[in-house]
Design goal:
The strands form two sheets. Strands 6-5-4-3-2-1-14 form a seven-stranded mixed β-sheet, with helices on one face. It has a seven-stranded mixed β-sheet with strand order 7-8-9-10-11-12-13. The protein has six helices and 14 strands. The termini are close together. By secondary structure, the chain is an alpha/beta fold.
Length: 225
């Protein structure tokens, strides 16, 4: 599995020859100005919730690639009415896609489209691939529901928000990594704008002191694992 960080909470996953984008917010992020969305491949687009900083580039990419949009029922309906191919899910449900099993899990946050319309309830994704299992938390507070994840899936990587203010901070993310029983963490949802800027060295130190590995990728950098 390859994971590419496109800034903020935007990710690219490659599992064999299948390409998945998560929460594509790229053209609106000045720090990701070197990423050309017209060059991104996407067979699927996974959306954790409807806020603009997670869906901005969905339509442009899906229109070009014919990607299937996977999200909660309300978000899927929103894009289906616009003519896009979708796969609706809801909390606790799972589906076996051609790249692996996906479970839609709880997140504590809000969810509305830029026009104010209802975006359903926010969530995260647990993806069980052929060789690796990952948890993409989405925008969330620390929640006891995370303790349910290791009851059904042994994780190889947890992708957690660490920017504070709108989501968990570093200290809560460390607790979250305990809850999901995974010590290998990819941090995201930080530094994009002033509210969520973090001290990278301090964040890594705090995880290291708990015998955990926090990875902070440069925008455009790929993790092979």
């Amino acid at each position: 599995m390859k994971i590419t960080f496109y800034g903020h909470a935007s990710l690219g996953l490659q599992m064999q020859d299948i390409h998945i984008l998560v929460d594509p917010f790229i053209t609106g992020n000045e720090k990701a100005s070197h990423i050309n969305i017209d060059e991104l491949k996407a067979d699927y687009i996974l959306l954790t919730h409807a806020h603009q900083d997670h869906i901005l580039d969905v339509e442009a990419i899906a229109k070009r690639t014919n990607a299937v949009i996977v999200s909660n029922f309300e978000i899927a309906n929103y894009y289906e009415e616009k003519g896009f191919e979708v796969h609706p899910m809801n909390h606790g449900g799972s589906w076996n896609f051609d790249f692996g099993k996906v479970k839609y899990v709880n997140a504590i946050h809000t969810s509305s489209f830029p026009d104010g319309s209802y975006g359903g309830q926010p969530g995260g994704f647990v993806i069980e691939g052929e060789h690796k299992n990952i948890y993409i938390a989405g925008d969330t507070a620390l929640t006891m529901d995370m303790k349910l994840i290791p009851l059904h899936t042994k994780l190889d990587l947890a992708i957690l928000p660490i920017g504070d203010n709108f989501t968990m901070n570093v200290d809560d993310a460390i607790i979250a990594s305990d809850f999901v029983n995974c010590d290998k963490i990819l941090g995201y949802h930080y530094d994009t704008f002033g509210y969520i800027e973090i001290d990278h060295d301090e964040a890594k130190r705090k995880f290291y002191e708990k015998d955990k590995d926090l990875m902070l990728l440069d925008i455009g950098e790929t993790l092979d694992f």
